[in-house]
Amino acid sequence: MHAATHHRDLYTVQQVRALDRRAIDDLGITGFELMSRAATAAFACLCRQWPQARRIVVFCGPGNNGGDGYLLASLAYGSGVRVEVVELSDTSRGDAVLAREKWQGDASITHGWQQDASLPGADVYVDALYGTGLNRAPDASAGALIERINASGVPVLALDVPSGLNADTGHCPGAVIHAQTTVSFIAAKRGLYTGKGPAKAGEIQIDTLGLPDILWQGMPTDASLLDAMHLAPRARDAHKGDSGHVLAIGGDTGTAGAIRLCGQAALRCGAGLVSIGTRAENLVALNSACPELMAHGVHGPQELQSLLSRATVLAVGPGLGQGAWGHALWLTALDSGKSLVLDADGLNLLAREHRPLASAAVITPHPGEAARLLETSTAEIQADRFSAARELARRYGAVCVLKGSGSLIAHPDGRLDVCPWGNPGMGSGGMGDLLTGVIAALMAQGCSAWDAARMGVGLHARAGDAAARRGERGMLATDLLDPLRALVNGLDA
């Protein structure tokens, strides 16, 4: 399995190929030996995941991923499992030629893929069609096979990467295998962890194929998976003034709930004081719902100034709107130079009117907001979330949280972390408002913008997973508040 020293490291396909080449050139391990090790690791994974499986079908493409599949088929056959192979082509390439010949030397059952043929029955299907070797949509014939596999109801083990998934970006330009488990070799490919990657890969297992740690020396990672983080215990003589003062600005007419959620999250994550600058008509509701929030009616910039002078960190955008009131408060907040978290309409206003941000700033766009900030389409953002997050951070000089499945946290200097937690139940109103408050609270307590964003995204996603134990459908943003309190203190949620 994956060496502990690399458990958070994510790599591009090019980097993994360089590692593969190092193993061959510097360590003297042949390509066929690496293929054999991959097949052994994959068969061991299959036996762990499906110990009762007695019939498997391996779907092999012409490249090295198919070679892994042929060798897995031979291993399974030798262990007494009934094995059939369905191949896309009868012409293999490179080391896969030897692997196919080995399989054919067994008492093999091999079928060429025909679109009008039915698939053999099995307990498990093994996807060895393309792996990392495909960065376009599969052709019509392969796409039809992938769709047939997905519709079969048979569980799928994908080798290295589900075929059809871009291993660099997590994008699916066409048909893609939907695997229950993916065993990935040598190093973790970054595309497995964001975009469509988590949904298509299922449970991800990494196997370094017994290669020594020296192989990774001098090879920089492209990104890292987040660690579970929390704040250190407070000093016994701490008081509210030691934990910062968050000023949350927003809540135009009809959107008081957004700024309330932001403020409550900041309180639950430990901000000493939380003030709200909002429409005057929201005050009764806010004070009744959460008396710990210090809600102030703000008609314009002049009334906001007195609140700004007392604040440590600003949380700008939840329910702000893009009208004259919201725009005036937005300008005043940005001109203050205070550390801030910018979300929602705060980002939409920034897309319309580029303004410099404070030196300690976090922006938290979803893909639609990111598209507006980069003047492109949501589809383009999702096609390469890594490039988009890094460009947003660079262009705006701020730490960027690109939300979505496998949220990304990018620093202007190019560093990038990927969140491995979260679930579809978090796709409901108010979740982003909570995240804004969480990050602002961490900044108010002394975290840098980078650390606050990383920790905040992790806490938010893990709280969502805790809330999802009672079911994903029907989850409310407020369901995350109690888990957030536990997790920020390092307790079980």
UniProtKB/TrEMBL annotation:
Domain (YjeF N-terminal): residue spans on this chain: 16-217
Record: residues binding (6S)-NADPHX: 64-68, 131-137, 160, 258, 319, 366, 433
Keyword Nucleotide-binding: yes
Binding site for AMP: K403, G404, S405, G406, S407, G432
Residues binding K(+), per UniProt: N65, D127, S163
Cofactor, how bound (note): Binds 1 potassium ion per subunit.
Keywords: ATP-binding, Isomerase, Lyase, Metal-binding, Multifunctional enzyme, NAD, NADP, Nucleotide-binding, Potassium
Domain YjeF C-terminal: 223-491
The family this protein is said to belong to: Belongs to the NnrE/AIBP family.
Described purpose of this protein according to its UniProt entry: Bifunctional enzyme that catalyzes the epimerization of the S- and R-forms of NAD(P)HX and the dehydration of the S-form of NAD(P)HX at the expense of ADP, which is converted to AMP. This allows the repair of both epimers of NAD(P)HX, a damaged form of NAD(P)H that is a result of enzymatic or heat-dependent hydration.
Protein name from the UniProt record: Bifunctional NAD(P)H-hydrate repair enzyme
The species this protein was found in: Dyella monticola
Gene it is expressed from: nnrE
